[in-house]
Here is the input.
Amino acid sequence: MKTFSPTSVRYALVSCTLYFLLFSTVPLSTAAESAFADSLFQQGDYLNAAHEYKRLLFLHPDTPQSDFIAFRVAASYQNAGKLKNAIPAYQLLIDTYPESSLVARCKNNIAQCHILLGNSKHGLSSLKQFLAEHAESDLAPRAHFTIGMVHIDKREWIQARQVWSDVSLTYPESPFAEVSNRLARQVKDAENLPRRSPTLAGVLSAFVPGSGQIYTGRTVDGLYAFVSVAVLGGASFYYADQGRYKVAVPVGILGAFFYGNSIYQGIQTARTFNGEYEKLFRNKLQQEIRDSGLFGAIPSPTDEVKFVLWQSRF
Here is the structure.
């Protein structure tokens, strides 16, 4: 029977230990890095989370499910409000992993980033394109609902009502259906909002200075305009009647300026009146949407994604 010397046994033990340390610390280290990035994301420290996820991609570019890490980078930027960073991050995922199941989600989030940046035209076209390409996606109800939100932000009440009615009919099982149906009914009230005609306000001010402001509820401003025009106009006629044209002319010009300004202010106050009531109505609808809990920080995809390398799930 073959025997091993104590030296050989010690060498074998040391070699096995070194092998284990060298080849097993990598996944353990990566698992720790992944867990740290996850904890930052869950705690809302999105910018640092984005940095950690980008570092993971740099150190382990061939990691299975690296598309999901790339998604977390973009989602971290979006949740942090860094929308201009989120858009190219989402686009990078689309270009790098065109076959990923997250591509549809990225396109939808890009559209929403454009809308949040104030580029509603680009955002609307992106959402409509998304719906055309991914009509069966579980994100379709959200995208369709968002189109209605854009119309509300632009105070396009009729279009918003039509969109939300379509959402409730097209996706009856979606959580967006009930909210859409409720909002579509509420948007009808936009037809009954108090309004003042800018044209009528301007005409009234032309006949009686300040009456346009009084028509829109600005009584003090209207009285001030009336008194200013009356005093300056009367003073101009008084000095003209006395032949003191060097005084009458500049006073008359000043009176004419106040008269024209009264007409302009009458029109503007009517527009402001309408805008204030529309803003209050829009804020009421937006509060309804916020209270629904349908929108918030970008969550993880519903499907659990397993990272084979470090056995961690997001």
Summary: Residues 198-280 form one domain. Strands lie at 306-307, 312-313. Residues 245-292 form the longest helix (48 residues). The radius of gyration is 33 Å.
